[in-house]
Design brief:
- This protein is mainly beta and about 700 residues long.
- The chain has six helices and 33 strands.
- It has one domain: Maltoporin, Chain A (Beta Barrel), CATH 2.40.170.
- The longest helix is centred in the first third of the chain and has 16 residues.
- It is globular and about 85 Å long.
Length: about 700
């Protein structure tokens, strides 16, 4: 089925389903129970006033469907793609950075309320993210600001928690449940308590998830708690404390070859055998496979954080800190072993800003810095059917991060703002091999910078352009790839970006957010081989030069606004389109003759859309679709293409009373066989490389929310 035909069928089907409803749009907009926060509704202040590509995704994007991982929260985020490598294992990629990771490395930094969720070693465990306790997701693409970004290539995702000021007051409960078409159940329960007084507010939420998983060896069970309490001590002094606890147990099915995916997509990673070398000869079992090896990842995490704001000496100060304790047990494929990690980290940050008049114009300057120090023991044992066996290696890993930034915005004219800034980054990685007490240390030091201009054409329309430089050292996972007892020779990555964009709204029917970027990268870290098929040597290498060019577009259309208003309804078509032309300019010695090839793991064209019909404060129905097109390769040599198919889903909700709402969602309702994720390689062995993760079969979920 072609992209054009699929999209036409989508529009026809959803328009037909939308016909014939009634009620009052004014009441719907006032109550906003089901109404999504579209780009047409978004004030330009939501874009943080920066001359760069930023985005904000409210909880209304995902709270009325079965949202069980962070990938569901960025469906409408331009420039962001999700590489689904296993259940509860989405890998976030911004502008193609981090798309090729079997593990989530730090090309994309994830924060929780401004404090790092991505650990100081450079790893993000997405299973620690509870969307149902999140009020919104702020996304920085590239180096839109130096406070959060600049020390990584892709960007920053900041999860902003619900508080007693913005969550429904009192006790609320939510229950979701459903199944795939072949009877594999899944469900989650969320209970929250929120309240606010004059100087105090509080929020606490508990989420439990159980999924059998549509593939074999894919069971998931997790319990998460998030709580925060805020104090307004004086007009110029406030503080908020955060607590997060996660207990997650996930069985991993692993990847498949294309042939295995087409034959039986539900199977986990099968054994690898050798032989028979002659008729009737023995068959040697090289790898037992995901089921026999009990391929899994169990995480126990506890985290406390604080953020305090203080007005002092004409400045507004923000002081933050966090402490995280994390334990991970992960039986992996035979020759990788049983990985047991345990560690903690401390972090602190300080920011200050001030607004004033300077040379006749409004001026804002901001400066600050961050310090994070963490250590973890990382032991690898032989994997004896899911239990640790003899020791393979025992190491201690330490990382330290120090950064400092300064940036300013100057408005020589009422509608023109110019910004400039720089950031110093220093990262130290230290590895101790307990076998011989050998200590290996590498230190990386660099500078990120940006300069841009923003022009407000009107109160509803804004254009911007900027240039920026980003700097990112390799993560601990990348530095220990191939041999966990030494740090390899990977170099830091540098990028230079030209970016331009426009955003705003036209009339009462369209809101848009468009950006073009052209990024040249030196020493981009590229994945060469997929871990389950790689036995020795480096898995990553630096490419001498690469380029990432593309267009990111978010366009929300309120169709027939006058006619719909007269009928007491609203019809909205939301669109996200990404064009990605990412290429290897000079692969260097490590990558060989791949110059000019596309970087594997991402389609050239990627579209996500939703047509939604809302009836006042009563009910809604929406159909959504995902399409991928153009070149989409699994290997950097560009010999094998990733198969693509349109994926169709729906969401619906009905408000029964002021306290009770019910909703339903369907995923892949056409039961299309598709690839949800791929771990790119340099050279692919089509018969052996198990780098493809199949997407789940047709699934339908229902749920209810009750406010006591």
């Amino acid at each position: 089925m072609t992209v054009t035909k699929s999209f036409s069928a989508f529009l026809l089907a959803t328009t037909t389903l939308a016909a014939g409803a009634t009620a009052a749009v004014a009441a719907m907009e006032e109550a906003g129970v089901f109404k999504p926060a579209t780009l047409r509704d978004r004030p330009l202040e939501d874009y943080q006033g920066v001359a760069g590509a930023v985005d904000r995704r409210d909880a209304s994007d995902y709270e009325d469907n079965y949202a069980d991982d962070v990938g569901d929260g960025v469906f409408f985020a331009p420039g962001v793609t999700v590489n689904g490598l296993d259940i509860q294992e989405p890998r976030l990629s911004i502008r193609g950075f981090a798309v090729g990771n079997s593990g989530q490395r730090s090309n994309v930094i994830v924060l929780r309320d401004g404090a790092r969720l991505t650990d100081v070693h450079g790893t993000t465990n997405t299973s620690e993210i509870d969307l149902l306790s999140t009020q919104r997701i702020d996304i920085v693409r590239g180096v839109a600001n130096l406070r959060d970004g600049g020390g990584n290539l892709g960007g920053v995702v900041n999860l902003v928690s619900r508080t007693g000021r913005d969550a429904p007051a009192g006790l609320s409960a939510r229950l979701d449940g459903g199944s795939t078409i072949d009877g594999k159940p899944a469900g989650q329960t969320h209970v929250s308590l929120a309240g606010a007084a004059a100087s105090l507010d509080y929020y606490a939420g508990v989420t439990g998830v159980y999924e059998l998983g549509w593939r074999d060896n894919n069971r998931r069970s997790s319990q998460q708690f998030h709580g925060n309490v805020g104090f307004q001590l004086r007009d110029n002094l406030s503080t908020r404390f955060f607590v997060d606890i996660t207990n997650s147990k996930t069985e991993l099915a692993g990847g498949l070859t294309l042939a295995q995916l087409e034959e039986d997509a539900q199977r986990p990673t099968p054994p690898i055998t050798l032989g028979p070398l002659f008729p009737g000869g023995p068959v040697i079992n090289l790898v037992d496979g995901a089921r026999a090896d009990d391929f899994a990842r169990d995480i126990r995490e506890g985290r406390i954080a604080n953020e305090t704001t203080l007005g002092l000496l004409w400045h507004e100060f923000t002081i933050g800190g966090h402490y995280t304790r994390r334990e991970i047990e992960s039986p992996q494929i035979d020759f990788v072993g049983f990985v047991d990690q345990e560690g903690s980290e401390w972090g602190a940050r300080l920011e200050a800003e001030r607004s004033l008049r300077f040379l006749g114009g409004e001026t804002l300057y901001r400066f600050g810095g961050e310090w994070v120090n963490g250590s973890q023991t990382s032991d690898v044992f032989e994997n004896l059917n899911g239990d640790p066996g003899p020791v393979i290696s025992q190491t201690d890993q330490k990382s330290k991060l120090i950064n400092a930034f300064v940036e300013g915005v100057y408005k020589p004219l009422r509608r023109l703002a110019v910004d400039i800034g720089a950031k110093f980054v220093k990262v130290e990685r230290q590895l101790t091999d307990f076998a011989d007490d050998d200590i290996d240390t590498r230190t990386f030091t660099g500078v990120a910078a940006r300069g841009g201009a923003r022009f407000d054409v009107s109160e509803r329309f804004q254009i911007y352009a900027n240039v920026s430089r980003a700097y990112e050292p390799p993560s601990m996972e990348e530095l220990t790839a191939g041999d966990p007892t030494v740090l390899n020779g990977l170099n830091e990555q540098d990028s230079f970006t030209l970016e331009a964009g426009l955003r705003g709204k036209l009339g009462t029917w369209i809101g848009f957010n468009l950006a073009y970027y052209d990024t040249d990268v030196e020493n981009e870290i590229i994945s060469l081989a997929e871990p389950s098929s790689f036995i020795s040597g480096d898995i990553f290498a630096n490419a001498d030069k690469t380029t990432h060019k593309g267009v990111e577009a978010g366009v929300d259309l309120h169709l027939f606004p006058d006619a719909m208003a007269n009928r007491g309804a609203a019809l909205t078509l939301r669109n996200v389109y990404n064009y990605a032309s990412h290429r290897i300019v000079d692969g260097g010695f490590a990558l060989g003759d791949v110059d000019g090839n596309r970087i594997a793991g991402l389609p050239v064209h990627h579209y996500r859309g939703e047509l939604r019909y809302d009836v006042e404060d009563s009910w809604f129905f929406a159909a959504n679709i995902q399409l991928a097109g153009g070149a989409y390769f699994a290997d950097h040599e560009n010999t094998v293409s990733v198969p693509t198919e349109p994926i169709v889903g729906f969401t619906a909700g009905y408000r029964l009373s002021d306290q009770l709402e019910v909703f339903a969602s369907g995923e892949n309702i056409l039961d299309t066989g598709y690839v949800a994720g791929v771990s790119p390689v340099l050279t692919i062995n089509i018969d052996e490389d198990r780098i493809f993760t199949p997407g789940a079969r047709a699934s339908v979920y229902g749920g209810l929310k009750y406010r006591f």
